[in-house]
Write a structure and sequence with these properties.
alpha/beta, TIM Barrel, eight-stranded parallel beta sheet, two-stranded antiparallel sheet, 12% strand, binds magnesium ion
């Protein structure tokens, strides 16, 4: 089996992570967090969302965050845009790449957008067409690509059909979201095999959640199918609204970096740099970080951490 030589990590902490955090984060801290992430080598950072401020109060400062970022050369800063109005705001704030979200099922779109899949795609078409006309790059998320909190298991063909329609609208790439953290590697293979019938692996990303401890195994399964784009969130920011309180959501960037390093797959990101960025934002969260690699203190050490007195190892 051939594994990819290089993976692009899409850092979603500042948007997908923070939008699921209860504590209100100051605008300046969000900007400093994003700048620390680019300094750590992340080449794609989803910076914020131009959703209606009432829907996600945490990201109501999107218009201030985006222009304040110290844009690093070569780094892409996509922003989530749900509506034409959101697109206008994003353009005014200097966005040059957007992301749109569609659920794979009617029930999920109804709960989130009061739309069916067809209706949500029609709305997305307006945004994508306008963005493409301005030369903006478009990332398309397919949420609940592996399982839906309302409909249960999602047939791979259903996910593939929605992904294909989003690509046909003009999306440059598709990120398949395991929104409820239900997928296992077998599911990843089955869904990817269906989606790979409508597009090639180079345009596909995996947005894995570690809710049931499957995230890195799922990434491995995606790499086996040639996927080279993987979403993750610094420190594992953001919980999972579809699981119990305190449940894990986004795969942590630290864990992904450590994992890819072990496989010898290039990604350009410094583990220590990500950990520094995560530690910075953790000071504003009111709770600890969820990344096991972060909790372990990064890479293995040859002697105990200062101040610890470990029992004899067995
Ligand atoms: Mg997520």
């Amino acid at each position: 089996m051939t594994m990819p030589e290089r993976v692009t990590i899409v850092e979603v902490g500042p948007r997908d992570g923070l939008q699921n955090e209860a504590a209100r984060i100051p605008t300046a801290a969000k900007v400093a967090f994003i700048d620390r992430l680019s300094a750590a080598g992340l080449g794609v950072i989803e910076a914020t969302s131009f959703v209606h401020p009432r829907a996600v109060p945490q990201l109501a400062d999107a218009d201030e965050v985006l222009p304040a970022i110290a844009r690093a050369p070569g780094v892409r800063y996509p922003v989530l845009v749900p509506t034409r109005r959101g697109l206008e705001r994003a353009i005014a704030a200097g966005a040059d790449e957007i992301a749109v979200v569609i659920g794979a099922t009617d029930a999920f779109n109804r709960a989130n957008l009061n739309r069916t899949v067809d209706g949500a795609l029609a709305d997305a078409a307006l945004v994508v067409t306008a963005a493409r006309a301005r030369g903006m790059r478009v990332r398309g998320y397919v949420s609940v690509a592996f399982g839906c909190p309302y409909e249960g298991e999602v047939p791979p063909g259903t996910t593939a059909a929605v992904a294909g329609r989003l690509l046909a609208l003009g999306a440059d790439e598709i990120s398949l979201g395991d929104t409820i953290g239900a997928a296992t590697p077998g599911d990843v293979h089955r869904v990817l095999d269906a989606v790979l019938a409508v597009t090639d692996a180079g345009r596909l990303g995996l947005h894995a959640h570690d809710t049931r401890g499957q995230a890195l195994a799922n990434v491995y399964a995606a790499l086996e199918r040639g996927v080279t784009i993987v979403d993750s969130s610094a420190g594992g920011l953001g919980g999972c609204p579809f699981a119990g309180p305190g449940a894990v959501g986004n795969l942590a960037t630290e864990d992904l970096v450590y994992f890819l390093d072990g496989l010898g797959i290039a990604h350009g990101v410094s583990l220590e740099g990500v950990m520094e960025a995560s530690a910075f934002i953790a000071g504003h969260l009111g709770h600890g970080l969820r990344s096991p690699t972060h909790l372990a203190g990064g890479r293995p050490r040859t002697r105990p951490l200062p101040g610890t007195d470990p029992p004899p190892a067995v």
